[in-house]
Amino acid sequence: MDRAGLLGVSHHARRSLMHSHSVLFDASEFGMPIRNILAGITLLLICATVSWPAHASSPSVSTGKAISGMCAACHGSDGMATVSSYPNLAGQNYKYLLNQLKAFKNDKRHNPIMHSHAAALSQKKMRDLAAYFASLEPGNCSVSKSKSKG
Ligand code: HEC
Fold this sequence. Notes:
The protein is mostly helical. The protein has 2 domains: 2-51; 61-138, Cytochrome c-like domain (Cytochrome Bc1 Complex, Chain D, domain 2), CATH 1.10.760.10. It contains 8 helices and no strands. α1 packs antiparallel against α2, α3 (61-67) crosses α7 and α5 crosses α6. It is elongated, with a radius of gyration of 24 Å. 15% of the residues are buried. Mean pLDDT is 79; it is low at 144-150. The protein binds heme C. Heme C is lined by residues 70-71, 73-75, 86-87, 89, 97, 100-101, 111, 113-114, 117, 129.
């Protein structure tokens, strides 16, 4: 953080130098990428620190999205099922989704496919996945509208 701050200061100093004098040496050519990399590392560190205490943290939609690939084959990458006999998850209630995943895992809701998937998930991953699917817009609205019209 200190180094990024220092670089920030020197960058400004460099810019004012470039304005007041003719440019002797353009340090920004390599200065900028290093600064960007440092900014990136700082951001990563902040993210890692914030998301580290897994049980204390709130569900993460972005983590859920990142790990939802294993669900997409059946439930669709947008939460809309690929096969009509599979349930859509997009826009479903967070608590409901979480409860179903827990129920599949401990076999209170019996389904061999979902049991094997849920059994592999930690509590944190279940919360992230539930948050992700709950955050999605439900699809197929036009289908149900056109159906109701007639
Ligand atoms: C091989 C296909 C398949 C995959 C992969 C899969 N599911 Fe499912 N999922 C199903 C089926 C089929 C059901 C309906 C189960 C039933 O009839 O009880 C279901 C049901 C669910 C439900 C309950 C929905 C409801 O409306 O009650 C949730 C939540 C769910 N899946 C989440 C997930 C998540 C999260 C993943 C990824 C970790 C995943 N599924 C991966 C096939 C799949």
